[in-house]
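Thread: quick sanity check before group meeting

JM: Hey all, I'm pulling together slides for Thursday and realized we never actually wrote out the predicted structure for the chain we discussed last week. Dropping the sequence here so it's in one place. If anyone has concerns about the input, flag it before I start.
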Amino acid sequence: MKCEKDYRANFTKEQGYTRNLETIKIIERSQIGSVPIALVTPEMLEIFLDSIRGYAAGTIQKIFQKVKGAFEWAKMNSLIDVDPFSAYNIRCPKSNKKNKRINALSLEEQRKLVDYLNSYEPYEFRNDYRIQLMIEMYAGLRMGEINALRIQDIDFKRNVICVRGTVSRDKNYSAFLEDETKTPAGIRDVPISEELLPYLRQAVDQYRENKYGLLFFDHVHNKLITTQQVNCFYGRVCEKLHIKNTGQHCLRHTFATRAIESGVDAVVLKQWMGHTKISITLDTYTDVFASLQNTAMTTMNDYIRNVI
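JM (edit): ok, ran it. Output follows.
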């Protein structure tokens, strides 16, 4: 199996290998999954591809690439005479799912959350996840990236957070520290805002030694902190504040939304968010960009009046 070989050869890391296995399981459960590749007809392929339209666009793309790659490999190794994908121009199907609207906190909700977290008194012998939430809300890092921050990743001299790794789950769903991010674009330096600076100084001041040198570590259970742990805490906070709980990832969307509203360019935001392509940034926050059209036109009109 190619994904096994790539994993053993270190072309694919644990996180990518796990995602590949999940994609392959989808294919194996389908009709073509139990048919020898030499007997799969173009009609069977079309039926299969039509059947996966209910998945999200990203999942469909992964499934399509896996099946297409299998036929390319089969042709190269003389298991089939004709690759149907090239011979019949079989294309990747589009998802039937509507584009998900991003969930970001309103300004009022954000103020309520900040006020609550600032006044919150953590319980003794319990982990405190407040600063992780502040980093996500004021820097836009993914929670796995935040939980993987080492103390040296907070560079006060250059005033940046150096994102270099993530806490992931392996094929057995056990947490492990990965010395690279979700995508190559995830390795980045994110500026530290004035709002975030005191929280980062507090985190560094409160640092306790651990075997990974991590800024945030579960000293209660002597293990890595997972996204799920922070999610549970965030859920309890949302319930307390009567804020709709859509998961702590909404704080990353909140950061991006505030950045766009304040006039940050999409190219800059792409870098801060660690997106692979500018299209991901534009597609994810299309509604936010669209809502600023009138303001943008006013800005342009003012500029033209001043220069002409």
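AS: nice. The first helix runs from residue 2 to 8. The two ends are 65 Å apart (CA to CA).
JM: adding both to the slides.
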